[in-house]
Amino acid sequence: MNLDMSDLGQMFVVGFDGLSVNDDHPVVRSIQENNLGGIILFDRNIDGSRQNISSPEQLRALTSSLQNYTEKTLLVAIDQEGGKICRLKENDGFPASVSAGHIGSINDLADTDVQADGMADTLAACGINFNLAPVVDLNINPANPIISRYERSFGQETELVVRHAVQFIEAHHRRGVACCLKHFPGHGSSAEDSHLGFVDITASWQEKELEPYSKLFQSGFDDAVMTAHVIHRKLDPRGLPATLSRVIISGLLREELGFAGVTVSDDLQMKAISSQWDFEEAVQMAILAGVDLVIIGNNLVRQKDAFSKGIGAVVKLLDEGRIDEDQIRLSLERVRNLKQKIAGERPWKDSRPTT
Fold this sequence. Notes:
Elements lengths: L11 E3 L11 H9 L3 E3 L15 H12 L7 E4 L21 H7 L2 H17 L4 E2 L26 H17 L3 E7 L26 H8 L5 E4 L18 H11 L5 E4 L5 H4 L4 H11 L4 E3 L9 H14 L5 H18 L13
């Protein structure tokens, strides 16, 4: 079967400005003209002004409008981890949430189910179908400025993290919301923040950071995994961030650990990537490495033509023969499978560990 080039937009999730949309809004044109696969929502811009979310009622209207512009399921993604990392805030009329760190410290699966079910119910009621959570990083470095500092990890031990991640995922699946594990191959031992620049985990990373992923994959989880913009020179001797590393994504994640779902890049506009690579080059490297779904947040910076440039970058790879069409077809198939599960056309796999 020949590759349908009009489907390439399905490989992107893009952020935008606006509490509402109409026929002339840029994101609507991207959906209708270039088959945009998904959007990512933020409550506020980097300067503190509103971006997409002001109240539950407003958010429901926004997501409903967006879905009405396409016959396909639109991925509506958000970072709703709980606690300090949440886009749906209590001050804006949403239910309060607790952090993964708090959940892990209580270590009561029944309580975790209550917390996660409430979160997933809120997401589903607001038209959000893809939660970029849970974090399954092990809380190895207590001085970590981006994981431990914000209580984003369930804890230090694999079994604790896996148990609560499973409960979190199952609660979301009950509400028709997909989940995305992050940040592969592990961000919990790092000493820097990849939002701000270069992060090298070569000396701090421990092999046990792969265990939560391995156990969840073995038990059937196949929604999505987000790659980290971290460098590990022993995993990739070229010193490429995981998001741009074929050795780490196609090799370690796919072949060695057996992940069959959607690979998602962390935001390509983060400084760890944008300070080193041109945007179009970064898109190409991510796709070549094995990323299925590229996130362009348009939150840290504004790049109005990023989506069209991203598509152009993939087209160029194909035109120059630098990538096999089969790889693109497989990526599109994985994204389509994820959307079918969200739409109820395909069953979720059991994510509960068997041992």
